[in-house]
């Protein structure tokens, strides 16, 4: 990794008076390397857009510091920060055509006209909006406006590209194609980008690293793989992954040479002591209650497993999602074959200990992932 | 295609005709009166057929009013000029002050911003008569009575709140992100105000300006009390036609025709422009 492109240190955002207003972003510290694509992922109101707007300079930060390329920028006007941004609401200039809107972003750079035309043409090709370049924003669809807005941001050669929900309005097929192209475009030019999204597929596909946010707090900042495999806490575990991770509260028991995780309804998952590594075992046995999580893909049907009752069975064309009543809650499992199970059919499920995520019951922080401590 | 029966169309035509007659009749009647002498106007019963004369207009333009009791000097052309000057200048000043203020109120929430905006609006609540006496006394003390400067100042009571509140609404309707997009592209906030906010709010500013102009033009009571003959607008000047030898209906009508012509022309011209401009972005510009 090369020098950091942007650093946020201890950034707080209050809407209203400091310490009394709405605390939208809490003590956010992040470092993003040059050439990296980072996704801010979270549900509505988690502070991800506030973060983006603070970086752009449309919101003041209440505390902390932001530097772009080693330069403290949080006191500078947006114009001096050298960042480009695609807005969620597109924000195209109504009296200008799509072409003019995109070329307009280059005005401050004072390039010769031929170069501007070439840049507009190549971006338009990338985003498949060549045929609407001469149209006005109010005459094109939302998806086209969004691509024009994205183009207006990508055409610039800024230190940092901020993309707020850049593909929310696009059709799924087009979205998949553009994701690949945009990632290639950004990587090829060595641009640094931060995108805000609530779509985890988009975050997974585009980002080198994902910052999961909730309640204004950065929950985890890691590669998509690591977030999937080693969620830092219960929130990340259940938020990322589709269908979401199954979680159950369990009492830890140690009897007859087995570690048993006792679930409601008198059910119990029993494992041999050596199913866990020594440190994980110690952590488990030190606790009375834990929360266990398992991804739907890791739940297996087996003869000796714990009983459950099928409550829904859905064939999606390439996989089956089976929901079952299990331990006073609901358990979802995914199978790759078409499974014919009637509603109410009894099944038995087992969970391999290496697929088990264990979280602290009080704090929600991860204790272990399979054999390893978190 | 819209389906309307013949009967429906006939009824609608009749209704529209009635409305147009109701609203247009006074204007048409005044227009006709302006080409008649007092004698033909006061005939009983009134008649639609008459011999048109330009005497009323001649009298107004030359400033010589001939009545049975002699010739009077009237300053109608001067009044008309005063009206134009006072209204145009007042609206210009109000736009200059009001548009940036409206932008500030729309975009920046600061301590007391709502209170200040409301106070400005409240100028329009108070009946003019309420402030007239103190205002007259102040103006006499300050030497502002019977000056254009003083009148334009007082006219701000009429124009400024109107422009501020209408234009503020238009600014608020512009998504802030459009301005942000421009600013992040390397432009100062002033350039953003000039190049993005002003053009997008243009139709609103024009509408507010037009309305303020009409209100200023029609003002009577401030001008009556605070201005003497040489600074009076037409609204007050028309009083001169009530002479010792009777009311000069012909000249009053001609004066009215002349004094509504500028506002009418402006409204008709601006209406076309407003309709075009209101369909934001739909037209090249």
TrEMBL record, chain A:
Major location (coarse): membrane
Listed SUPFAM superfamilies: MOP-like, P-loop containing nucleoside triphosphate hydrolases
Record's keyword terms, sorted: ATP-binding, Cell membrane, Membrane, Nucleotide-binding, Transport
Locations listed in the record: Cell inner membrane
Leader sequence segment: none
InterPro entries in the record: AAA+_ATPase (IPR003593), ABC_transporter-like_ATP-bd (IPR003439), ABC_transporter-like_CS (IPR017871), ABC_transpr_FbpC (IPR015853), ABC_transpr_MalK/UgpC-like (IPR047641), Mo/tungstate-bd_C_term_dom (IPR008995), NA-bd_OB-fold (IPR012340), P-loop_NTPase (IPR027417)
Gene Ontology CC, one term: ATP-binding cassette (ABC) transporter complex, substrate-binding subunit-containing
Listed CDD domains: ABC_Carb_Solutes_like
A GO molecular function held by the record: ATP binding
Record-annotated ABC transporter domain positions: 6-240
Membrane topology term: Peripheral membrane protein
The UniProt record lists the keyword ATP-binding: yes
PANTHER family named in the record: MALTODEXTRIN IMPORT ATP-BINDING PROTEIN MSMX (PTHR43875), OSMOPROTECTIVE COMPOUNDS UPTAKE ATP-BINDING PROTEIN GGTA (PTHR43875:SF1)
Family the UniProt entry places it in: Belongs to the ABC transporter superfamily.
Name of the featured protein: ABC transporter ATP-binding protein
UniProt organism field: Mesorhizobium waimense
From TrEMBL, chain B:
Taxonomy, superkingdom: Bacteria
Record-annotated ABC transmembrane type-1 domain positions: 80-270
GO cellular component terms listed in the entry, alphabetical order: plasma membrane
TM region(s), chain numbering: 12-32, 84-106, 118-139, 145-167, 204-229, 249-270
PROSITE patterns to which the protein is assigned, alphabetical: ABC_TM1
Membrane topology summary: Multi-pass membrane protein
Subcellular location: Cell membrane
Family, similarity comment: Belongs to the binding-protein-dependent transport system permease family.
Protein name: Carbohydrate ABC transporter permease
Organism of this sequence: Mesorhizobium waimense
């Amino acid at each position: 990794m090369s020098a950091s492109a942007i650093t946020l240190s201890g950034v707080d955002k209050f809407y209203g008076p400091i310490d009394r207003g709405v605390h939208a972003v809490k003590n956010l510290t992040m470092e993003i390397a040059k050439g990296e694509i980072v996704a801010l992922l979270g549900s509505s109101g988690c502070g991800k857009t506030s973060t983006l707007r603070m970086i752009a300079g449309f919101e003041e930060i209440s505390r902390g510091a932001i530097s772009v390329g080693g330069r403290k920028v949080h006191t500078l006007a947006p114009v001096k920060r050298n960042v480009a941004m695609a807005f969620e609401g597109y924000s195209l200039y109504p009296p200008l055509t799509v072409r003019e809107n995109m070329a307009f972003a280059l005005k401050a750079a004072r390039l010769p006209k031929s170069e501007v035309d070439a840049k507009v043409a190549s971006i338009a090709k990338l985003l498949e909006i060549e045929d609407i370049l001469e149209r006005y924003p109010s005459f094109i669809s939302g998806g086209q406006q969004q691509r024009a807005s994205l183009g207006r941001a990508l055409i610039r050669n800024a230190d940092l590209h901020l993309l707020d929900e850049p593909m929310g309005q696009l059709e799924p097929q087009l979205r998949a194609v553009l994701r690949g192209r945009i990632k290639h475009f950004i990587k090829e030019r060595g641009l640094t980008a931060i995108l805000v999204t609530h779509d985890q597929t988009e975050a997974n596909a585009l980002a080198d690293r994902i910052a999961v946010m909730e309640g204004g707090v950065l929950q985890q900042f890691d590669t998509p793989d690591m977030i999937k495999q080693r969620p830092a806490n219960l929130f990340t575990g259940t938020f990322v992954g589709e269908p979401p991770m199954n979680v159950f509260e369990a009492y830890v028991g140690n009897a007859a040479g087995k570690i048993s995780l006792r679930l409601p309804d008198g059910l119990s998952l029993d494992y041999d002591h050596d199913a866990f590594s020594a440190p994980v075992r110690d952590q488990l046995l030190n606790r009375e209650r834990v929360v266990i999580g398992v991804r739907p893909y890791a739940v297996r049907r087996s003869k000796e497993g714990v009983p459950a009752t099928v409550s829904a069975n859905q064939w999606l064309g390439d996989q089956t999602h089976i929901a079952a009543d299990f331990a006073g809650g609901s358990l979802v499992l995914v199978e790759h074959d078409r499974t014919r199970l009637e509603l109410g059919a009894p099944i038995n499920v087992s969970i391999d200990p290496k697929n088990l995520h264990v979280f602290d019951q009080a704090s929600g922080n991860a204790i272990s992932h399979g054999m390893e401590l978190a | 295609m819209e389906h309307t029966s013949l009967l429906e169309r006939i009824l609608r035509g009749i209704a529209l005709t009635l409305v147009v007659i109701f609203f247009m009749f006074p204007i048409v009647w005044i227009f006709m009166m302006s080409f008649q002498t007092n004698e033909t106007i006061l005939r009983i019963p009134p008649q639609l057929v008459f011999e048109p004369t330009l005497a009323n207009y001649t009298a107004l333009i030359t400033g010589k009013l001939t009545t049975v009791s002699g010739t009077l000097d009237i300053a109608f052309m001067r009044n008309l000029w005063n009206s134009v000057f006072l209204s145009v200048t007042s609206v210009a000043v109000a736009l200059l002050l009001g548009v940036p203020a409206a932008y500030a109120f729309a975009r920046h929430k600061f301590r007391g911003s709502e209170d200040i905006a409301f106070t400005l609006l409240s100028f329009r609540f108070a009946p003019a008569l309420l402030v007239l006496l103190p205002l007259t006394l102040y103006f006499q003390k300050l030497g502002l009575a019977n000056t254009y400067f003083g009148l334009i100042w007082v006219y701000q009571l009429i124009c400024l709140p109107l422009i501020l509140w209408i234009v503020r609404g238009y600014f608020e309707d512009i998504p802030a992100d459009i301005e942000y997009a421009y600013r992040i592209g390397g432009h100062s906030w002033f350039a953003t105000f000039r190049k993005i906010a002003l053009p997008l709010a243009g139709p609103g500013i024009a509408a507010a300006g037009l309305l303020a102009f009409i209100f200023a033009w029609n003002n009577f009571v401030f001008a009556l009390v605070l201005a003497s003959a040489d600074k009076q607008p037409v609204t007050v000047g028309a009083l001169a036609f009530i002479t010792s030898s009777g009311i000069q209906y012909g000249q009053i009508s001609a004066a009215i025709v002349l004094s509504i012509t500028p506002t009418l022309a402006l409204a008709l011209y601006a209406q076309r422009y407003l309709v075009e401009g209101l369909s934001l972005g739909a037209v090249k510009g």
